[in-house]
User: Fold Murein L,D-transpeptidase from Flavobacterium fructosi.
Amino acid sequence: MRKLPFPIVIIVMTFLFITVSCKKQDKKEAEAAKISLETPFDSTLVKTFFVNHPKLQKYQGDVEKLYRKHQFHYVWYDDNGINDFGNLLYDKLNNLEEEGVQVDVPYKNQLADIYEDPDNDQKPDIAAELLSSSLYFFYADKVFHGISANKMKDLEWYLPRKKQSYVSYLDSLLIEPNLINKDEKGVLSQYYLLKNVLQKYREIEKKGGWKTITIDPNVKSYKPGDNSTTIAQIRQRLFVTGDISRDSKSTVYDDVLADGILKYKLRSGNIPDKIILPAHIKDMNVSVGQRIKTITVNMERCRWISNDITKSPEFIVVNIPAYELTYFNNGKPELRSKVVVGKALNKTVVFSAVMKFIAFSPYWNVPTSILKKEILPAIEENENYLAEHNMEWHDSYVRQKPGKDNSLGKVKFLFPNSNNIYLHDTPSKSLFNSEDRAFSHGCIRVAKPKDLANIILKNDPNWTPEKIDAAMNSDTETMYRLKNKIPVYIGYFTSWVDDKGMIHFYEDIYNRDERLASLIFAK
Assistant:
């Protein structure tokens, strides 16, 4: 057997010694890390951390609550270093714009040093641990919670807000990190639909958006068969947003463009006809940047509503800017109806309540404000005013008796509330033919009141369609208490994604978007 030269033997022995030593060292470090993870850290370090990170002091209480729950053990590390959710959170913080959030992340460079340097994310580090926890609560605050309840009231939004424990929520995310990508249990599911559209519109913006359409002051309208360069511009505009599948660049208003116009009008709250008016072109000329802002504003509104509202067997939603009521049964829309809402001086309030009664052939008790401003001056000019309008004095107020001309129509739906707002029929049916339907004193007039009454009472053995019809055409008021109470939500959304994935934009009739945008886009 040939002997190895002595120098080679030395080299081999040295290599083996180093290898064994490294393995022992790695084992020692792993054991040390494990001991560190199992050993609570000094609780006083939390206070010290926030002294050194004042921009995050808002979240100190949540962080302290988190670690008291975990007995001051590390939550962002496992045996391999920073855990999966820590890395996912870091990615989320770097892409806040995808969530419609325009805000700078505090101590972002320090966070990058931790997560992007492989040598820094292996061993448990108290500064990295507390920074991760603080920025988790920062993320939850901006993405899930949104602006404060007090600011919501300043914006005249009174829908109830569910309290969410983001300490408990973190435990779920640590077990299943991908919940953060689409957790419909916390935020209204509409949020995620808007988020998807936001990405689409940002892609459109990156490609240059859409061109401004020239409005010819001498043309009052365009109809099928017309020929104009403006038609070609409209065609290109609708192609960009997917309302038509191909841009033929034709200047002739053909059937393909007509279908695109109908689709565009459907999602813009317009009357679904094929006539193109200057007002429609003006709406098409709203920039993609402004549309992105509108989507972002409405994502913020979604943060204020828990998805739990959809768990009710049946509920009613009124979207004020859409002038639309939707009745849901088992999570699916069963009835849609046009509505008339309060005008700018008598805004319909954003709130929720539970429908408990239906009044057939109702009296209309004239509100004090209307009595003083309208009825009393009319009586002074015409002493027969009350009789001519089927009204009467009742105690100290005026009421209108049941009948076809009653201002509440033939039925009203009551959900007792301090705003004295309810749903009702109306004798003024022509108002539902208008695109803009903000005409009332605050209450909500329903275009399909009979359909609504029938669908609400369809499982009530006390009622049939025939009985409902008779009660609606009586000279006597019938007040009925519902067996099943129905939640009613009156909201304000100027953009909304429907159940087919189509984005709708509505006029900001109460001018609330800019006020909200100024809050959420403030640095």
In short: Residues 58 and 82 are 24 Å apart (CA to CA). The longest helix spans residues 6-38. Confidence is low (pLDDT under 50) at residues 14-35. The longest strand covers residues 478-491.
